[in-house]
Design brief:
Two copies of one chain form a homodimer.
Chain A (H helix, E strand, L loop, with lengths): L11 H12 L16 H16 L3 E4 L5 E5 L6 E7 L12 H17 L6 E7 L12 H6 L18 H7 L17 E9 L4 H5 L3 E7 L1 E10 L3 E2 L11 H14 L8 E10 L5 E2 L2 E10 L2 H22 L2 E10 L2 E2 L2 H14 L3 E6 L4 H5 L5 E6 L15 H21 L2
Parallel strand pairs in A: 3-4, 3-5, 5-15, 6-14
Antiparallel strand pairs in A: 1-2, 2-4, 6-13, 6-15, 7-11, 7-12, 8-10, 9-11
Chain lengths: 416, 416
């Protein structure tokens, strides 16, 4: 760990230049970037990055799941994997995903430029459709890489009525051959993903490096409150069954879950009332809720508490509450060996770090269901992401990328 | 008050038949009726009713405000006025407004059929645009009848971008001559409006007649909560400024106003959140609120309390709350002489009655700003109105109409 940056061939200027170059592919008028998965900008970014892979000594290929995978063999038969995604949300930021891919290629380039060959081969992934373009479930590519493609069915229709399978085919994939996209799982040592935090913790605490302890699980919940729509002037208060007032109690109870020792975060992000006019008591209100925690048992316990709360509100207000528990994205813990390695590297580089969970979902969450994973976070200024205002200081971008390189070298040295 | 129905020429079958006939003009697929003001169905209903006016010995005319007014002179120079409106909300009920117009014509017909001439002339009004078609303020016609047309400006644009003035012209009115629609105010003794309750009180208490003590005032309020939209997974609870959670506190505080001794009823009927997706903390929420009370001073006091509550929520949650107090429709008290007359008549007819305020707005509320008014309510089954399920038992419809006739005769006898 005593190598200075120059010793290991790390070219920070090239990294920043490439991040900026990628930002121009799908640049939006608002200053962000729109590269919806499988669309023209996403495919153009993939082509650009494939060229950089070749320069870095990686052999790129587009797999059956439309992932761009670059490989450079090592001295032994095992692999270390890294990477992230190139697709973005609509008018998203320039770093989300792209930074982790560019940094992964910089890792390969550093090895290539210095003629160094690791014991492990290096596998660099640009996963397809992490974000869930056009209303799809997302994480399409990473699922296929670990043989879980059945969890993201190719029959799924997007908002345009087009199946994921058709989108895949258009992007150079083969929806009938997704099995072929699966990595040689027994031979992969670990997957390490570098990413911006997309939250305020590092910025708030002034640490340049986040050692991700795990990725929080997410439990969705759809609530529909059925009350009685009625005239807001003529219906006495004691004869009302106001669906919005009941929903307001539910929103506040959901918000109080973390305070009361429940899940890590709980959010009601969606509300829709009917008939939704000022002079009619709301008859029906739908809420979209999600709970996140690193511990599946905590999520399970919170669900029971929420069910009980909803039943209490229904009885107290004479309304009906339909609750439909939706998608559960299970929490994933980081591999202790990867966590230890990132901490060691950050310490050796003199970078202040903290352990923190990832509240956002990442491809590493999918890979981590099958393989050992870890993540390195760098600060998001103001915690902003999925926005043209997404930003990370250049020094932090460089420190994170170098930490990724050193972490992979550290893992290579220890597990050879 | 000893006349039996037959003695006073009251034809209940004709009344029910005409209510049913009107229900077919603009009948909706859902079993209700859609006669938006100034539209084809509304104008067709007006033509139909004008014919009934002629049969009942009334001289009908369409005034400059597109009201249909039928007059039958009395022995003296003064007038008693009655009526309601023919326009409906979209997919509304068959009784709201129409019942009061048909019953008013039945009053005239009863006098005509029995050759009876009152001391007062009878003025029967079918007011234009009570409901506020296509997003307009409503009560257009009744404002003009008492010289208040400046309060419902003809420049107002409806949801289709058409001015009220253009709508009026299309419906046979003359927006430049609204002064001519004003009644001879000094010569009008009183206006009495018969209407379904549109609320549950009479049905709930089993009384066929409601003696309306006054019409509650209404105070509108638009609230916009500005918080901070952020990632629902990565933003710790203590760093959030959740606009929907703040709005939920406001909704519950508004609902508690009547319980805490404030206004008679308070409602939050409208909510709109942004960006309104499950996995983003709501950054902005708009609420549409209204408060109703019979006492303007109570409304004033409640406004101060609401302003204080909003400021507390803003400070406690680190959000900005913009409150815009909107339209105030002032409360109107019924004229004591009309109230006394309705009570006397109901008692003489052996009908159980109670005093109650009108929570809904009515043309009588506008007329009452200038002239003595009163209202008679009949039960709405289940309190339902503005709905195809709006219903009143035939016996109650007949009792109410006969009470209207007898009230006008009583007022005529006492003030001659």
């Amino acid at each position: 760990m005593s190598d200075a940056p120059s010793d290991i061939g790390f070219d920070g200027d090239r990294l920043l230049r490439r991040v900026a170059e990628l930002a121009r592919v799908g640049a939006s008028a608002a200053g962000g970037v729109t590269r919806e998965a499988w669309g023209p900008a996403d495919l153009a970014a993939r082509d650009l990055v494939a060229g950089w892979m070749v320069e870095a000594g990686l052999s790129p290929e587009v797999d059956a799941a439309a992932n761009l995978i670059g490989r450079s063999p090592g001295r032994g038969g095992r692999w270390l994997a890294t990477g992230s995604h190139l697709d973005t949300v609509v008018d998203g930021g320039t770093l989300d995903g792209a930074y982790g891919v560019v940094a992964a290629i910089e890792v390969a380039a550093s090895l290539h430029d210095t003629g160094r060959v690791m014991e492990h081969g290096l596998l660099v992934a640009a996963f397809a459709n992490e974000e869930g373009a056009r209303g799809t479930s997302g994480m399409t590519g990473s699922h296929a890489c670990v043989g879980l493609h059945a969890d993201t069915p190719v029959e799924e229709l997007d908002d345009d009525g087009v199946t994921v399978g058709e989108r895949l085919r258009h992007a150079g994939g083969d929806p009938a051959a997704l099995d072929h996209a699966c990595w040689p799982l027994a031979d992969v040592e670990a997957f390490v993903e570098l990413h911006i935090e997309q939250g305020p913790v590092l910025d708030d605490t002034g640490r340049p490096i986040g050692v991700v302890s795990g990725i929080t699980g997410r439990q969705g919940l759809d609530v529909v409150v059925h009350g009685a729509a009625n005239h807001a002037g003529t219906t006495p208060m004691h004869l009302r069954h106001d669906a919005l007032a009941a929903a307001a109690e539910i929103v506040l109870a959901i918000e109080s879950l973390p305070r009361d020792g429940g899940v890590r975060v709980a959010t009601c992000g969606h509300v829709a009332a009917s008939p939704n006019v000022r002079n009619v008591i709301p008859g029906q209100v739908a809420l979209g809720v999600e709970l996140r925690d690193q511990d599946a048992a905590v999520l399970d316990a919170a669900m029971l508490g929420v069910d009980a709360m909803l039943a209490r509100v229904a009885v107290a207000r004479g309304v009906t509450v339909d609750a439909r528990w939706g998608q559960r994205v299970p929490p994933v813990a980081s591999d202790p060996a990867v966590v230890a390695s990132v901490r060691r590297v950050a310490g050796a580089m003199g970078l202040a770090w903290i352990d923190l969970p990832s509240g956002a979902g990442h491809d590493a969450q999918i890979i981590g269901r099958v393989l050992p994973i870890g993540m390195i976070f760098v600060p998001s200024v103001g915690g902003v992401s999925h926005s043209p205002r997404e930003r990370t200081d250049a020094a932090d971008l460089l420190a994170g990328a170098e930490a990724l390189l050193r972490t992979l070298l550290d893992l290579d040295g220890r597990s050879r």
